[in-house]
Fold these 3 entries.
Entry 1:
Amino acid sequence: MRKIRKGDEVIVIAGKDKGKIAQVQQVVADGQKIIIDGVNVVKKHVRPNPMKNIQGGIESKNMPIDISNVAIYNSETKKADRIGFKVEGGEKVRVFKSNGKVVS
């Protein structure tokens, strides 16, 4: 069970986008990097390719960010928080370390 999953609201704690709050779009296959909407955006030069109907030019692209540079955002405390695990009713659930509430 991963601590940060797709759809979680996270806050960036290091890097050029420090302080931004956004949702996780994708967890990259190795589990060490994630793609977040509007974070770590780079400009990529694309070559035109008429066979694939690509016009070409400069496009913006979300690049992966290391999972150690983000923390889960606790909307109750309005701060970054850590995640723990607890067994409730025979199921393993994720909980916030600060207040013990279950992560939705």
Note: Residues 44 and 63 are 10 Å apart (CA to CA).
Entry 2:
Amino acid sequence: MSDARGPVAAHIRLASVPLFASLNESQLRTLAFRAEERSYRDGDTIIAQGDDGNALFVILSGQARVSRSKRPVTVLGPGQYFGEMALLDSQPRTADVTAEGPVSCLVLTAWGFWSAADHEVLRAMFKEVTRRLRASPTAFSE
């Protein structure tokens, strides 16, 4: 991780994210060691719809606007995340995410995730992805 606060601070941040909340200290530290902090300026594209997906982003500070096919979907803030599906399937991104003001994110690549994933990490990931799918009003419509 490039931030001076290092993996110790990152594992504490990951523990507050629903995706990783059920993991133990050791699992969180292992994931945090593989993550890095990245900063974005106002208007920067963090991810672009259609690009290859290969990382999960956890917002540490600031806000990011999510849009799909140029239509606004939501605004995310600290503790929220996006890109979790990319860790599972490496498919193209389904939305644009743009910084609204300065944004800092903890970024975990698919390689970092899979090199650290044990069955408990995978179970936590699948449970949270399933929860988000069930909560989505359009997840199962055509």
Note: The chain has a mean pLDDT of 84.
Entry 3:
Amino acid sequence: MIVVDSSVWIDHLRDRDTAEVACLRGLISDGLPPLLVGDLVLCEVLLGLASDALVEAALRRFDVVDMVGPGIATRAAALHRQLRGRGITVRRTIDMLIAAYCIENHHSLLHNDRDVDPLARHCGLRIFPA
């Protein structure tokens, strides 16, 4: 399964020309691919909109999953400590939570967020496309 980060959904909605948006659009045009929309991602995307009904309906075409529970919260904290031990700071807790969810569930993440890159290099996060 592929989790699409809010960074890509937002770029898609703003019609930005990025490699990640092209990848997302290619996946969508192939039919409903195995894409997951996490509840955290749904929230981040909807936060920036004046009206969210149409976007929410479009995102709900895909599987929307709960991402955080005690296990994921604990794993995210451990990942944060692991990176801090290497002198790397991920600025947003939500990025740690999404990465921990993907790692624990063996999902790949399609993203356009530089804070996520160290999680791939040092913590086993799988990035899509590989």
Note: The chain has a mean pLDDT of 93.
